[in-house]
Amino acid sequence: MGHSASLDVSYHPGNLYPSTIIRALLSQGWRANDHGGISHTRAGVDNWESSPLERLDEVLEALDEEWDTGEPVAITLVMEGADTGGIFMFLHENTLSVIANYNRRTLERAGNFTDMSWYIERILPALISLHQEVESVMAREHA
Question: Which DSSP string do the residues of 87-108 spell out, in sequence order?
């Protein structure tokens, strides 16, 4: 098993569709461009699809529709100019789970451990811009 790193961000009052949060993240410099397409999942987290970049609005609408059925949904986002990102999974407990698996940032003097602050600094402003109060941030790392 390889190295894995993730963040779970819990917020309230919640009641936001994934598309609302994704659009806020996009306004903060994140991009849905995963090697020239939009990588996303519906109908279960093991069912990944790739869609053309020009279909972003349709993808976001489809994610919201799946969300309404009670299923978690996910999309790969990459920070513009940094070529770093991950899988952004939206869970129904007002939790955004981010798997840092796209050119994961590591700490300069701590071996292969993830620079979690890099991700936190680039994710929380989007939630705050939507008037969400961040309740907790839980980081997990398995070397």
Answer: EEEEETTTEEEEEEEES--B-T
Q: Please, which residues bridge with residue 84 across strands?
A: 79
Nearest to 12 by CA among 126, 128, 90, 121: 128
Q: Are 36 and 52 in contact (CB under 8 A)?
A: no
Say which residue the tokens 């790739």 belong to.
50
Cα–Cα distances (Å) from 19 to 102, 103, 112, 116, 134, in that order, read: 21, 24, 33, 24, 18
Which residue, 55, 11, 93, is CA-closest to 75?
55
52-98, pLDDT tens digit by residue?
Answer: 999 999 999 999 999 999 889 999 999 999 999 999 999 888 999 99
Q: In 3D, which of 2, 7, 16, 3 has the Cα closest to residue 129?
A: 16
Within 10 angstroms of residue 128's Cβ, the number of other Cβ atoms is 13
Which of the 8 DSSP states describes residue 43? S
Secondary structure of residue 125 in the 3-state scheme: helix
Contacts of 56 (CB under 8 A, 6+ apart): 32, 38
